[in-house]
Amino acid sequence: MSSKGALTGPEYVSSAVKIAEEHRDDVVGFVTQTDLSSCDASFLRMTPGVNISAAGDGLGQQYNSPEEVVGRCADIIIVGRGVTGAADPAAAAAMYKTRAFAAYRRRVDKL
Alpha carbon 96 to chain centroid distance? Predict the structure, then answer.
């Protein structure tokens, strides 16, 4: 999770990856803030908490840019308030898509 003090420690993550690997027909990926390098690359990594106009909020949410999360591991970014709270949500969504895809291209070009 992208909230400060989340209870998803290494033991929890390891157990979740193991369960996913045992149930590949039912699991397509993970919602994660970090690279699960022990995990098969065929799983998608979806990262919430993406927002370029704020670093956090009063509820403990910690935001990162598309470039930060894609550079770490994200295949899919999850943007909420950065789009829904924008003056022009369609333009904001297009901008997040453009920045995330550019970051993805940079990441895969390094492979």
Answer: 13
Q: Do the Cβ atoms of 80 and 67 come closer than 8 Å?
A: no
| Whole-angstrom distance, CA of residue 84 vs CA of residue 92 | 9
What does pTM read for this prediction? 0.81
Structure token digits, residue 33: 């803030």
Strand ranges inside the chain, DSSP E: 29-31, 44-50, 76-79
Once rounded to an integer, what is the mean pLDDT over residues 2-23? 80
- What residue ranges in 32-89 does DSSP mark as E strands? 44-50, 76-79
- Taking residue 67's Cβ as centre, other Cβ atoms within 10 Å add up to 18
| d(C-alpha 17, C-alpha 39), whole Å | 7
CA–CA separation, 38 and 18 (whole Å): 10
Residue 78 CB coordination number (10 Å): 13
pLDDT in tens, 39-86: 678 899 999 999 998 766 766 778 999 999 999 889 999 999 999 999
